[in-house]
Amino acid sequence: MATGSALKTALLVVLSCAFFAGANACAKGVQMLEGGPDLHPLQIAFARFLFGFLTLLPFALRSGRTVFRTTIPLKHGVRVVFGAGGVAASFAAVGMMPLADALAIAWTSPIFAMVFAIVVLKEKLVPLRWLAAAVGLAGVVVMTRPGAGVFEAGAVIALLSAVLVGAEVVTIRILAQTDRPLTILAINNLAGLIISGLAALPVLQLPTVEQMPYLVGVGSIMVSGQLLFLKAAAAGEANFIAPFYYSTLLYAALFGLLFFGEVPDLHLLTGGAMIVASGLAIALIRPRTA
Fold it and tell me: How many domains does the chain have?
């Protein structure tokens, strides 16, 4: 990859990660606002897909009707279920614990993606990756304060988000063998809108004027980040992109400090570093070829 192209790819990834952290900050912010109804994480997930789809719609229309055509609708459905569940769990977690903590735990997803890839895609088992996975899970334990004696509820939900996102990643890899990235993204947001809307019906409440910008931000900022990341993924190899992807955690710590007064402690710094090292190792350690 040429130097100029590499720099552009890296900048796109780092910028997209700012959007990902910003979307989660919006999800946390709307849950911390005073004076409005307590919005359920399912309603926030519905807002994510609603405003995400509206943001994506102009790009989909410009590509024509074929953007929604696929020969594997059931596989897209499986991906949407995993994705919507992961989004709802992630938003619930950020409402229960510091933003950087929740995202760091949720970003153990590469560990679960590796496990699912071995089981579903029959990928080769690489011992060093298992060692890296153990380091990442140990990082989760460090972040959840072992001395407390209990596993914090928010951490459990963040870990559930990681499991679901890990399964989603493997499903996306299957979809990418047949469909183009914009089709995968468009179908995900449309189907996610329908599924999350049905799931949120029992808990829907009318948001206040103050809450609406946060809800719009959750969806539009997230999809904007996805579009930027797709451009980066099209230009660079996965093993080049992976190190920059973890800048999301730096943004999460910064946004948590600036907007919510969350000062990173030793547990976050140590456990987060272990999780980042684990994810990078899993991404960069390649199976040996014969």
Answer: 1
